[in-house]
Design goal:
By secondary structure, the protein is α/β, with parallel strands linked by helices. It has helices at 2-8, 46-57, 83-100, 112-115, 127-132, 153-163, 179-191, 194-201, 226-233, 246-256, 258-264, 269-273, 287-290, 332-360; strands spanning 12-13, 16-17, 32-37, 63-69, 134-136, 170-174, 204-209, 239-243, 313-316, 323-326, 370-371, 374-375, 380-382, 390-393, 405-411, 422-424, 430-434, 443-452, 459-467. Helix 3 (83-100) crosses helix 14 and helix 6 (153-163) packs across helix 7 (179-191). The chain is globular, with a radius of gyration of 22 Å.
Length: 474
């Protein structure tokens, strides 16, 4: 638990991070992400092509600091020529962004120098900006190649990003292997002090789609991977999420619903034209940035909070030796799995609505959740008394298109909780919460989920962190 406290700088109480301890980051700024992808031909790596299209469809929600082509299960070494498949997606984005900008009534692009600064939510970057942030990373896999001959434009970019004066964390979305980041850590370790290395590591959070820093045939040889080195040697300073649930569901649910992708994604705009049919599964890498999605559902810095990328707990990782935020053990595996199934229709519909914008320049936009006059996406922290009824009012929530809204209030399930408060009429826009008097649990997490009644019935969320002031038990 010391590691957890050091990583978050906050007190974790039954999965609730004290909101008052969160970094003071402007809410209108995008989260920073860097993608490490083994994108390649559709007959080898179609899922990375698919995830790249979805990422571009959300370029207004993420500050894409880098897209680094690198190794994965099916390519060691990574063929430099495969980067053309990333270029193809960016070329398609260059066409479609003219329609996508209509979602936020954006009329043009800022200069490249300004785009390299902090980007606000809702801003669609130019294709030239995306191209300037796309580069090669480490071409080889495993801890054995880390060293003086493994530097790359990608590892150098990561060091530059960490050195920028920006309080926002940098989320590393590892679609393939994270060898490029491991190399950046090694370089900083060689050239800077121990304190500077710690400062560097604390700038980053990493979400890996399983462990792909190796060939698929040797995927159970965890010691081969540089990921194990990162978890073992830098456990106190690096927030490491190892997903073994969301990516599997994303793959399998996509295959089961492929007819919807054919109808609503493929062929929609230029990006839809380069969205290939699945081979192994559909968009298995997408949960890495769904976890960071700024939609009000979760704070990505608290991996216990369930989001579109699942939920995680801190514990022994699948290698049986190192620790990480992960979801491979029961009962959390079943809990995360259930939420991933719950959210899948909404996250697909959200993507489909954006692809309609890419195709036609018209469509639906998401509702806005306002609770007790509080507008935004950061979690709301409340400290009511156990013996008092808590009233919450979301009636001022609205839909920018004027669509009617539906509401659903629910408490997130945690492995260590069996009793939850009672919600009076959870489908209303105003609710009354009554807390159990005979429970030792003093923390709960409530979600207000709002759908509009427009095309695709788009969703928005707001999370309420409840820390009971006193239990007043007899």
């Amino acid at each position: 638990m010391d590691t957890v406290l050091k990583l978050t700088g906050c007190l974790l109480l039954a999965g609730v991070v004290c909101a008052a301890c969160s970094p003071k980051i402007e809410e209108n700024l995008k989260p920073r992400i860097v993608v490490m992808t083994d994108i390649g031909p559709a007959e080898v790596e179609p899922d990375d092509n698919e995830s790249a299209v979805r990422l571009m469809a959300y370029a207004d929600r993420f500050e894409i600091e880098g897209i680094i082509t690198t190794i994965g299960w099916n390519c060691d070494p990574y063929p430099e020529g495969w980067a053309v498949y990333l270029e193809r997606v960016i070329d398609a984005y260059q066409v479609d962004v003219q329609n996508l900008m209509k979602r936020s009534k954006q009329e043009g692009f800022k200069g490249i120098e300004e785009e390299n600064g902090r980007q606000e939510l809702g801003y669609w970057p130019s294709a030239d900006y995306i191209r300037s942030r796309s580069m090669m990373g480490s071409p080889r896999a495993g801890i054995g190649v880390i060293g003086p001959d493994n530097d790359s434009p990608g590892s150098e970019l990561l060091i530059r990003l960490a050195d920028e004066e920006d309080d926002r964390p940098i989320w590393l979305c590892s679609w393939g292997g994270a060898n490029t980041f491991a190399q950046a850590v090694w370089r900083v370790k060689q050239e800077r002090s121990e304190e500077e290395l710690e400062e560097f590591l604390r700038k980053f959070r990493i979400y890996t789609i399983t462990d792909q820093d190796m060939h698929y045939s040797m995927r159970m040889d965890r010691a081969y991977s540089s990921h194990q080195w990162l978890r073992r040697d830098f456990a106190d300073d690096l927030l490491f999420v190892w997903d073994e649930s969301a990516w599997l569901n994303q793959n399998n649910l996509g295959k089961q619903n492929w007819d919807k992708y054919e109808q609503l994604i493929q062929g929609k705009g230029e990006m839809g034209k380069v969205y290939p049919k699945f081979l192994w599964g559909v968009e298995g890498d997408t949960p890495s940035f769904l976890h960071v999605m700024p939609n009000g559902l979760n704070d990505p810095d608290d991996p216990t909070q369930v989001g579109w990328g699942g939920c995680h707990q801190f514990g022994i990782s699948p290698d049986g030796e190192t620790f990480a935020w992960t979801n491979w053990e029961q009962p959390l595996k079943d809990i995360s799995n259930a939420y991933e199934h719950k959210f899948y229709p909404d996250e697909f519909n959200d993507f489909a609505a954006r692809m309609q914008w890419a195709d036609t320049g018209t469509g639906n936009v998401n509702p806005v959740v306002i609770i007790d006059g509080n507008k935004g996406i950061k979690p709301i922290l409340l400290s009511p008394k156990r013996d008092k009824v808590l009233t919450l009012d979301a009636s001022r929530s609205y839909d920018p298109d004027g669509d009617d809204l539906t509401f659903n209030w629910w408490f997130q399930e945690f492995p260590d909780q069996t009793v939850y408060p009672t919600i009076d009429n959870p489908q209303a826009n105003k609710v009354r919460i009554t807390f159990p008097e005979d429970s030792d649990i003093n923390t709960y997490q409530l979600i207000c989920e709002v759908h509009d009644k427009g095309p695709f019935q788009l969703t928005a969320y707001r999370r309420i962190l409840i820390l009971l002031f006193s239990n007043h038990k007899s």
